[in-house]
Amino acid sequence: xxxxxxxxxxxxxxxxxxxxxxxxxxxxxxxxxxxxxxxxxxxxxxxxxxxxxxxxxxxxxxxxxxxxxxxxxxxxxxxxxxxxxxxxxxxxxxxxxxxxxxxxxxxxx
Length: 109
Hints:
The chain is of the alpha+beta class. It is built from 3 helices and 4 strands; from the N terminus they run H-E-E-E-H-E-H. The chain has one domain: Trna Endonuclease, Chain: A, domain 1 (3-Layer(aba) Sandwich), CATH 3.40.1350.10.
């Protein structure tokens, strides 16, 4: 089992740890999106089991800007999964929720 170090309090360290985690998951591809290309786009973009995922990374206690929140809302409106996260644990929970949604769709419940 691969171990992931607890990220320091810096946003960049949390982002690196989450990206490393995502790219070890089966059926997942994720990359860092450089914010200089388009403001407001979440830090990490990817696909998990065919579902678009986007994570805006924030240090604990910090909130997204109005523009970041608006982009996440548009991603959700388009049926993607956009979230503000503060840790790997939050990302794990989101992937578990996606897995549960897939299982319910597969078995028609």
